[in-house]
Amino acid sequence: MQALKGLLRKEWVSRLIDGLLPAFATLAALAVGAIILLFLGINPIEAYSAMFQGAFGSANAIAETLVKATPLLLVAIGICISFRGDVINIGGEGQMVIGALLATWIGLTFTTLPGWLVITLAILAGFVGGAIWGGIAGYLKAYFNVNEILSTVMMNAIAVQLMNFLLRGPMIDPSQALLASKIPQTARLLEIFRLPRLIPTRLHLGALIAVALAIAVYFLLWRTTIGYRIRAVGQNPHAARYAGIKVQRYVVLALLLSGAFAGLAGTNNVYGVNYRMITDGSASGFTGGAGFNGIVVALFGGLHPIWSIPASILFGGLLVGANSMQRAVQVPSAFVTVLNGLVVIFVVSSDVWRRKRQKRRLAAVHKNEELPPPTDKEKVQQAEVAQ
Amino acid sequence: MSNLLSIAVLVGILASGIRLATPYLYAAIGEAFGQRSGVLNLGVEGQMLLGAFAAFYVVLQTGNLWLGLLTAAIVGAAMGLAMAYVTINLNAEQGISGIGFYLFGLGMSDLLFQKLVGTVETVKGFPPIYIPVLSDIPYIGKIFFSQNIMVYGAYLLVPIAIFILNRTTLGLKIRSVGENPDAADSLGVSVAKTRYFTVIQGGVLSAIAGASLSIALLDVFQQNMTSGMGFIAVALVYFGAWRPKGILGGALLFSMVMSLQLWIQIKGGNIPSDIAVMMPYILTILVLVATASKLRAPSALSKPFEREN
Predict the structure, then answer these.
(1) How far apart are CA A167 and CA A184, in angstroms?
(2) Average of pLDDT values for B113-140?
(3) Close Cβ partners of A360 (under 8 Å, ≥ 6 residues apart)
(4) Among residues A244, A256, A295, B172, which one has the fewest Cβ atoms lying within 10 Å of its Cβ?
């Protein structure tokens, strides 16, 4: 017993437990999910194994999982920036839509330009479109005190209507315009404009771009002044202002960048997956819910862009696996939304144990003056606790 | 222009605007109590969806509207209880756990609907009640006094909420816990108990808001049928500066524009319907811009309470 207590007090054990908390939280969510399945008269073991098989059971399945993970990761690294800046961006869906609209317009307009140039422009367009949509909410928060949770939700609704209007009207596929069905979709992109595939599956270059950007965002947040200031504003805006940081500017920037990466996810869906913009009249008809699920991924990854990479693969797998589960044991894929919700609830709830241990660690540091001076990381943690 | 201003059309738009405010009133007043006590519940939308389904399903099975409403209330209370435990005992970040509850309700209502019902079905919802004498007044009667009981209930809730918040000990506790939990605690007010109460009643009222859609206004259930109403209800709380009277104003403004927009969709030739649907959302943002800088939120809003040692 003593030995166990001693082990638990060790710094690295404590940190390991912190790192594993999301995994425990996920297991708890899966357990609650199993109870729900039992109530519906479905064998949870069969359901979960069908899900796992569908997500990771073959090379093709893994490729599909990575295809689904890509937009999740792009949204998630944006969420890392905004949540670190204490800005709650719920507008991922709308920002994806606007980014995609702008990117699609590029591809359908400049049909005579070379492929690489159009793809580059489309990536920029997605970035700019999302940045504008997120930036508006950031501006309203910084300068008009409008709660960003509310403004981003409203902006989602507006973006969806704008998409429906454009896809049913000015941007509709000319062949659909002649048909009675009038499916809200644009014309297909030229083949040279599509993101190249990596191996003979649907996996495409977008996945690599997303990983590279995740690493870039890590450097942005922890190795640049801009990133430092965004985090400083997020931790304590009053102290940041006292330190001479223009708080409002960094609030706008956090939301703007967050939106920009969601916008890229929009480009990704058009240029890497569907090769056109298509919807069923709702936001998730185009985004597949990535704008919301990206938040779950980022939280699961501890708001860290690098840890968001495995998190996105896990949740991409959940989405792909849900479809096989639906086929195998007739569980509606809405079950995954339930699981996602449970994961979020358990992850934020488990945070209480991390905070408790962190407090204890810092108390130990204070007691023992012979310890080396606190590192930068510990200083940040102290600031967190002090808050 | 003449048919735009015809009295019959105007009466129709106003009557449907009064009706449409119903779910927003229930949900926003429930949310206002929570926020006044310092808890931001972003799971309203999920609670509404589960409440809408619970009420719909019970009515579909039994035909008993009141039993449906009661079931919705119980489901809402259960969701509220879970939310309260997570935010009050575990001190979880409120905004984010709310998103978790939203996703849970969104998925769960859809899952249960597909498993237990499967196809689009309609139920016989609460019928309109024509209030004697008053409903005979020309125009006014049709607009205000020919609605169903859940609509009347929503408007009745406003004075009740004003009374509870401003004239009772409970209201005083709620406000003090939301403004200065440390002081309230030192005077012997239980911060946790008060917040448990407000979060659970918020869940109940959100679920009833959902039920008002599925068994009183639309009489159907569809996947994601609230489509953002719960979030708008949260917006209306800010909009109304955390006061029931302000919320009433906001809900009416929003629903009247919504009603006008629905009419334009059917009749208005030149404005594309997708653009018309945007109007209430743009209006909400504009009003938030105009009013937000003057607002003062409850000081302890979305801050977990931890006793100093």
Answers:
(1) 5
(2) 88
(3) none
(4) A244
**What average pLDDT does this structure show over B91-119?**
91
* 3-class DSSP state of A197: strand
CB B82 within 8 A of CB B101: yes
Q: Any idea where the domains of chain B sit in the sequence?
A: 15-234
B284 touches chain A (CB under 8 A): yes
Other CB atoms within a 10 A radius of the CB of residue B137 amount to 13
- Lowest-confidence segment of A351-355, B20-24, B38-42, B71-75 by average pLDDT: A351-355
With an 8 Å Cβ cutoff, is A178 touching chain B? Answer: no
CB contacts < 8 A (A, B): 148
**Which is nearest to B18 in space by CA: B285, B248, B236, B245?**
B248
* Residues in A 246-285 with any Cβ partner in B closer than 8 A: 282
Q: Quote ipTM for the complex.
A: 0.90
Q: How many CB atoms lie within 10 A of CB B13?
A: 18
Of A169, A339, A344, the CB nearest to B99: A344
**Closest CB from A332, A339, A344 relative to B110:** A332
The mean-pLDDT minimum among A195-209, B180-194, B282-296 falls in B282-296
**Interchain proximity A341–B275, CB inside 8 Å:** no
Beta carbons within 8 Å of A311's beta carbon, 6+ residues apart? A22, A76, A297, A298, A300, A301
Contacts of A342 in chain B (CB under 8 A): 100, 104
Q: Are B268 and B9 in contact (CB under 8 A)?
A: no
DSSP three-state, residue A204? strand
Q: How many CB atoms lie within 10 A of CB A127?
A: 22
Question: Which of A88, A154, A279 is the best substitution to test chain B (most B C-beta atoms within 10 A)?
Answer: A154
Which one of B86, B95, B284 has the shortest CB-CB distance to A345? B86
The partner residue sitting opposite A332, judged by closest CB among B115, B235, B275, is: B115
Place of tokens 């702008």: A102
Q: Is B272 on the interface with A (CB under 8 A)?
A: yes
Q: What single letter denotes the amino acid at residue B61?
A: Q
Per residue in A278-289, pLDDT (tens digit) is 988 888 889 988
Please provide residue B42's backbone torsions phi and psi, each rounded to the nearest 5 degrees: -95, 5
pLDDT digits (tens, 9 = 90+) for B13-64: 899 999 999 999 999 999 999 999 999 998 999 999 999 999 999 999 999 9
Over residues A107-140, the pLDDT tens digits come to: 999 999 998 999 999 999 999 999 999 999 999 9
Question: Encoding tokens for residue B176?
Answer: 């003090």
**What confidence score (pLDDT) does residue B1 get?**
45
Percent of all residues in chain B with a pLDDT value above 90, rounded to a whole number: 61
DSSP per-residue string spanning A305-321: TTTHHHHHHHHHHHHHH
Report chain A residues whose CB lies below 8 A from the CB of B35: none
**Domains located in chain A, CATH noted:** 69-314 (1.10.3470)
Would you call A385 an interface residue with chain B, using a CB distance cutoff of 8 Å? no
